[in-house]
Structure formats: C-alpha cells, structure tokens
C-alpha cells in the first residue's frame, strides 16, 4: 500500500479540551466541530470531546448527523438557518440557531416552531461579516423577545483580531456597553480570546483550532500553550535521486542544486492535502531529522533535501506535520494557516486512530 497515512489522536483532542476548560472559568464550552472536525473526523472528535458542554457546527446536516450519533447536548448552528423550512427541523432536533439578519426574524415570525427555540443573537461589533449592527440592538432584542417561537436568548459576537496585537477591546467594550441593559447571557470567545483575554468568557466559549492542537497565535507555539497535535501526517521516501551542481528537480525546475546532493521523493502531494504553494524550505521531518522541501509540490509526490540526513533512503519515514513538527510551522512556511492544512486532508489518505 502507498505509505502515506494520517494518525489522529483522540487522547490529544481530549487533552486540548481540558486545556480549554482550564481557561474557561465558569463558562460553558462549545467544542467547534464544523468541517468534519477540522479534518479530524466528526465521530472521532465526538468521542474525544465528549466532555464538552455542547457542540458547534455550520449546517443543519452536520447537526442532524450529531443527533443521529446520539449527541443529546446543545448544538449551535454557527451560520444560522438558510431558509424558513429549517425552523421546524431546529425545533424537532432541539438545535440552537444563530440569528444574524432580519430574514431570520421574519421567518420565525411567519413560521413559529412547534417548540420554542433557544437562539444566539449575533451582533456585528466590527468584523463586518455576520451580525446585526450594534446600533440596532434595542429594536432587534425587543423584537426577538416578542417572538413566541423563542424560548431564550444568548447575545453573541465574533472577534476579528483576537490573535493579533490589536486584540479584542475595540470590539468587546462597545459590545458589552450596548448589551448591558438587556440582562442576557453572552458569548464571544474563540480559541485566541479564550487563551488570552479572560474578560471575553461570558456564558459560553467557542474553542475551535486549539482543540486540534494548533496555536491561534503566530508568535506562540502550541507546545507553549500546553496543546498536543491531534493529527500527524506521515509518509515515506519512495525514491532517492542524486543531483549534480546546476541540476533541477520537479516541475518547472524551481530548485537547482548548488552542489552535489541527495534528494528524497516522498509519497505525498497536493492531492493528499499538502499545499501545492509550499515552496523550497518548507520544513519536514525525515526520520527525526529536520529537513526541507525542494521545488514544486506535485499531485502525488514532493521532494526533500537529504543533505543532513545521511542514513535516509527508500522506506525512511517522513513527518509532514504533527508529532515533532507543528502544523503551524509548516503553514507559516507555506504562507497559509493551520486551519487550511488540517481541513484539506484528502479522503484518499488512510487514517489511523490512536490513543
């Protein structure tokens, strides 16, 4: 069999949830498991994150799958509903939709659910993506409170720069100031805010990327945060080539040797989820030896430098990211984020679940 494999640790995810819980204080924890649990497998993540107080997903289909898997805890629909016909399903499955635009309120008024819903009412505090304008808060809250189809309200916002120097105050303080008179619980903290800004905790926190062992911060490693990598993408060297000075390797010959050198060809490419735009010097781990990629990533293969890995040859194991090589480091070198790398794991890559 082709040697590529993703090893996914349920123990690491459970550990990372405990780290999240240690920062959450009295707040309840929604484990964000959208996008197939960031590429880690929904059913696998549910077992690993069973101690969460609830789960957050994107679509009604994901939420329905959770209920079919036996989840009885709260399920939050992060993008809300996409049509009035979904209201009845939310009531049937006891889902908590995020309401973020006027049509949601119109639908609830026109087609009230058989059983009133717990809703999260989202306000735009500056990210300018989803949410009612903060300036409209009084009218919006009053209208939602008047709807017979609403059983309870949690106020909500989302931070644009919790992982950057700008921080959260420029959004958090206006949000809290405007919402202070409503006497309602609130939710604002993603992974970065949960780890760095305890004033954002509210009633519910919503950690995502940290549960899978990646850092939300460019300048702080996952290890420094006490997180463990949940996914290790690994393969093997399947061929060794020797380049002479001036010779190139791969499509476009983007890398040319300055001296005689050995090059390992690894069974992993962009069709497996490795980023095609990762150019020369993206880190890899060759049998525990830190090395680098060379040239352009192919659909099924990539090349690595064996100059400092004297004993490497065909069959030598290679870690593309995970244990011993943080996914954040690979993402930074490739000019992308750990979110993209983890979510892009291809269906053709075999997965082994480990403790």
Automatic annotation (TrEMBL):
Annotated substrate binding sites: 129, 299
The Alanine racemase C-terminal domain, residue ranges: 230-354
Reactions accelerated catalytically: L-alanine = D-alanine
Entry coiled-coil feature ranges: none
Cofactor: pyridoxal 5'-phosphate
Residues at the active site: 34 (proton acceptor), 251 (proton acceptor)
Alphabetical UniProt keywords: Isomerase, Pyridoxal phosphate
Modified residues annotated as N6-(pyridoxal phosphate)lysine in this record: 34
Molecular-function GO terms, alphabetical: alanine racemase activity; pyridoxal phosphate binding
Cited function: Catalyzes the interconversion of L-alanine and D-alanine. May also act on other amino acids.
NCBIfam families in UniProt: alr
Annotated family: Belongs to the alanine racemase family.
UniProt name for this protein: Alanine racemase
Natural source organism: Thiobacillus denitrificans
């Amino acid at each position: 069999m082709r040697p590529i494999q993703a090893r996914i640790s349920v123990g690491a995810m459970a550990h990372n949830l405990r780290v999240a819980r240690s920062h959450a204080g009295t707040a309840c924890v929604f484990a964000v498991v959208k996008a197939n649990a960031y590429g880690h497998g929904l059913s696998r993540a549910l077992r690993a994150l069973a101690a969460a107080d609830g789960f957050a997903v994107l679509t009604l289909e994901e939420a329905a799958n959770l209920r079919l898997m036996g989840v009885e805890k709260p399920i939050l629909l992060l993008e809300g509903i996409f049509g009035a016909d979904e209201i009845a399903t939310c009531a049937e499955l006891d889902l908590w939709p995020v309401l973020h635009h006027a049509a949601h309120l119109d639908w609830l008024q026109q087609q009230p659910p058989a059983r009133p819903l717990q809703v999260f009412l989202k306000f735009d505090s500056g990210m300018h993506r989803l949410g009612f304008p903060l300036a409209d808060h009084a009218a919006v809250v009053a209208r939602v409170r008047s709807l017979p189809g609403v059983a309870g309200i949690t106020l909500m916002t989302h931070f644009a720069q919790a992982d950057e120097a700008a921080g959260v105050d420029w959004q958090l303080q206006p949000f809290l100031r405007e919402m202070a008179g409503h006497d309602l619980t609130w939710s604002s903290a993603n992974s970065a805010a949960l780890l760095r800004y305890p004033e954002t905790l509210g009633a519910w926190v919503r950690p995502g990327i940290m549960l899978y062992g990646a850092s939300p911060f460019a300048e702080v490693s996952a290890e420094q945060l006490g997180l463990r990598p949940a996914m290790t993408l690994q393969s093997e060297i399947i061929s060794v080539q020797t380049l002479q000075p001036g010779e190139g390797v791969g499509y476009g010959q983007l890398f040319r040797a300055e001296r005689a050198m050995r090059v390992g060809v690894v069974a992993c490419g962009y069709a497996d989820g490795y980023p095609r735009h990762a150019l020369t010097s993206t880190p890899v781990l060759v049998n525990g030896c830190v090395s680098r990629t060379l040239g352009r990533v192919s659909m099924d293969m990539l090349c690595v430098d064996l100059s400092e890995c004297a004993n490497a040859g065909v069959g030598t194991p290679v870690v593309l990211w995970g244990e011993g090589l943080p996914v954040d480091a690979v993402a930074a070198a490739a000019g992308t984020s750990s979110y993209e790398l983890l979510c892009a794991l291809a269906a053709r890559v075999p997965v082994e679940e480990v403790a």
